[in-house]
């Protein structure tokens, strides 16, 4: 599994080479703590009070020493070095295990040899569920991180303006002399060199003005800030670089919240000095997107795009009182079903079942709410596709990245394109939706089609692909519960056109789908716990049933009477023979508790 907590994997999907000449990253963020030697103290000046800012920087920084009236060398502020975190108190195992003869009282039967050996169970799965909720100290996820040197955003913006002008001149000269456009890597390489020169000039001027030169860490932090403004996401970039952050929510420039792994939302300093600056940053990101015309303005008040590292951004303005932004990160960049077992999303029995379903070319729809792990599970199931098959992926913004992971040798990735704001015949000019791309995809000699997320009327051509093709296609769909999926499909089908009816939608779903896999999440971060993401249901679609609706057979489901919300075997599927031909051992379905060694340990609910 390629987890983005690994610093070497943070640049996923692979970006262009940092510089043609190789060498280390010149503006790498410092890892060491800021000590007293790093504080910049200006000499006493008549009529001025010299001091240090030791609190968190919120808004304009407090200058240390005199500040030049013209744009030039300015002062750093230094944030506090927070104390080490207090580890939470251990949870006392007060809940007694079931008595002999009850479920889970003994270890479940050993998995047959057909279960891959690498599918180990999650660590700590056998921990008993506490009967009482202990009071835990609120952990501070930021306390263990040293505060980086804070810089004046105005200085960074001015240096960015100077470097941008110099870079434009150099790129124009190169384009004229070479007769071709300068590539992105060369532009960034020259930009880095110009930033070093600009920061060195600024540092010299600062030393002459204040009698003391900035520290190396301060110069490095300023250079990094200028580089982020010029080529990346500006003051938003440190949050994008933090692999522990899952979501970034922006409600205007000065109201920013982030959620870290297994932690609740927390407010952080502003990412811009004004809403206008925030909108300018979003427009710069749209120009860097490279996936067609994407903009954020009065004519196009919404913006959806992918960021470096596979993150997804959605922004809105004009229709809201302030610019609003939501950024989501997929922490697991590349995963297999074995990795899903280790993460606790599925057990070894369900992993073997899903792998066989992919090999048997069953059409699968993965459902769930936002942030539960639908895309990660889809990516893991796609890893079971034979590597020589030719498949196509259709997404509004690339999130699966199957064409970059290396397992599949023939992937045709297709990304929808937004319009330019002008309306022609009721739709944006230049717009290409996923539904528009499906007919073209069918002419690409694809054995399977994978749709990252079905949101609207494209569900109809997607279901037709599943009905008419060889099978083995997959997609995801937002739905709160597994029993709502059929009606949710019908609702989206009705958006396809006035000729569509719910009866036709039910028939289309019954003929197209083989399996519905529902992913759930139990969030206990508010009570000192963690976020538990797991598959809760696997439903087999067995054709039309009563009242013309698709008939569903619960193959895997929870056992709430035993305190188990995760999916365990219930009823053998009608397609069991097809799965056995694909290598599935039907004996795995004999254990009523799957391969879990104990029920899911929850702080509230769970095993009674």
Per the principal axes of the C-alpha atoms, what is the gross shape? globular
Distance between the termini: 35 Å
What fraction of the residues are assigned to beta strands by DSSP? 15-25%
In percent, how helical is the residue content? 25-40%
Order of neighbouring strands in the sheet with most strands: 13-12-16-17-11-18-19-20-21
Radius of gyration: 28 Å
Put simply, the count of helices is 14
How many E strands? 21
The secondary structure category is: alpha+beta
The largest pleated sheet is described as: 9 strands, mixed
Spans of 5+ residues with little confidence (pLDDT < 50)? 4-144
Oligomer: single chain
Average pLDDT, rounded to a whole number, is 78
Kindly summarize this structure in a few lines.
This protein has 14 helices and 21 strands. By secondary structure, the protein is of the alpha+beta class.
Explained architecture:
This protein has helices at residues 153-178, 184-210, 216-231, 237-241, 275-289, 337-343, 348-359, 374-382, 402-405, 434-442, 459-468, 485-494, 502-512, 576-581; strands at residues 2-3, 77-78, 149-150, 245-251, 256-260, 265-268, 302-306, 312-316, 324-328, 332-334, 364-368, 390-395, 410-415, 423-424, 427-428, 448-454, 474-478, 515-523, 531-544, 550-559, 564-569. The chain has 608 residues and is α+β, with helices and mostly antiparallel strands. The strands form five sheets. A nine-stranded mixed sheet has the order 13-12-16-17-11-18-19-20-21, sandwiched between helices. It has a six-stranded antiparallel sheet with strand order 6-5-4-9-8-7, covered by helices on one side. Strands 1-10 form a two-stranded antiparallel sheet. Helix 1 packs across helix 3 (216-231), helix 10 packs parallel to helix 11 and helix 12 (485-494) packs across helix 13.
